Amino acid sequence: QITLKESGPTLVKPTQTLTLTCTFSGFSLTTSRVAVGWIRQPPGKALEWLALIYWDDDKLYSPSLKSRLTVTKDTSKNQVVLTMTNMDPVDTATYYCAHRPSAGYIENWGQGILVTVSS
Amino acid sequence: QSVLTQPPSVSGAPGQRVTISCTGSSSNIGGGYDVHWYQQLPGTVPKVIIYGNNNRPSGVPDRFSGSKSGTSASLAISGLQAEDEADYYCQSYDGSLNGLWAFGGGTKLTVL
């Protein structure tokens, strides 16, 4: 059974850096073509892809947020970490991490974590 | 602006058939990349209902089907049921820049 769970602060102040951790089980991020992605969803709005990290440590970022995002993995801990700098109230959203198997689609999602940006 | 374009809303009566379009470009759908569809019921996490253009995961009713042609894809739902009322998102890979994931802006399906 594959599970993913996001953890981190639920409230951050404007200009602060957000660090979220995705802890997963049931698959390995060392398996060829597997990836973990981050997606967010502002309240009442659409899904927005943020970043993707592959088994071989290749990384993709949303062009509109690339300058603010960093994604890393720790395969020994089965964790992926997303860092987003210079947080703004418009970044208030539920942040999901997701498992992308070799077939290329999102097979499993974490429960999501609602992050509110407010002073 | 989403890389993939979906209608904001569609509606249909129970038992009817509805389709949701997903329009892309030559760098994503038209470039041969697969399209996947996700259903997000109110207050829940999205789940895949179509992957690889037209494949249904086990447990997804065969009322749901997907197709792809040129730079567009479609999700069809036949025999509409009240429980189908949800937001639907298409997703693909885009080969522009250094590569990126592309989501549609989502379509709200209302069962009348």
Task: Explain the overall architecture.
The complex is a heterodimer of chains A (119) and B (112). Chain A has strands at residues 3-7, 11-12, 18-25, 35-41, 48-54, 59-61, 69-74, 79-84, 93-100, 108-109, 113-117. By secondary structure, chain A is mostly beta strands. Chain A is globular and about 40 Å long. Chain B is built from no helices and nine strands. In chain B, the strands form two sheets. In chain B, strands 1, 3, 4, 7, 8 and 9 form a six-stranded mixed β-sheet that branches. In chain B, strand 3 and strand 4 form a beta hairpin. Chain A binds chain B through residues 37, 39, 46-49, 52, 60-63, 96, 103-107, 109-112, and chain B through 2, 34, 36, 38, 40, 45-48, 51-52, 87, 89, 91, 93, 97-106.
Low-confidence stretches of chain B: none
Mean pLDDT of chain A: 96
Mean pLDDT of chain B: 95
- How much helix, percentage-wise, in residues of chain B? under 10%
| Distance N to C terminus of chain A | 39 Å
Largest sheet of chain B: 6 strands, mixed
Overall SS class of chain A: mainly beta
The radius of gyration over CA of chain B amounts to 13 Å
Determine the structural class of chain B based on helices, strands and strand pairing.
mainly beta
Give the SSE map.
The complex is a heterodimer of chains A (119) and B (112).
Chain A: E1 3-7, E2 11-12, E3 18-25, E4 35-41, E5 48-54, E6 59-61, E7 69-74, E8 79-84, E9 93-100, E10 108-109, E11 113-117
Parallel strand pairs in A: 2-11
Antiparallel strand pairs in A: 1-3, 3-8, 4-5, 4-9, 5-6, 7-8, 9-10, 9-11
Chain B: E1 9-12, E2 18-23, E3 35-40, E4 47-50, E5 64-69, E6 72-77, E7 86-94, E8 100-103, E9 107-111
Parallel strand pairs in B: 1-9
Antiparallel strand pairs in B: 2-6, 3-4, 3-7, 5-6, 7-8, 7-9
In short:
The complex is a heterodimer of chains A (119) and B (112). Chain A has 119 residues and is mainly β.
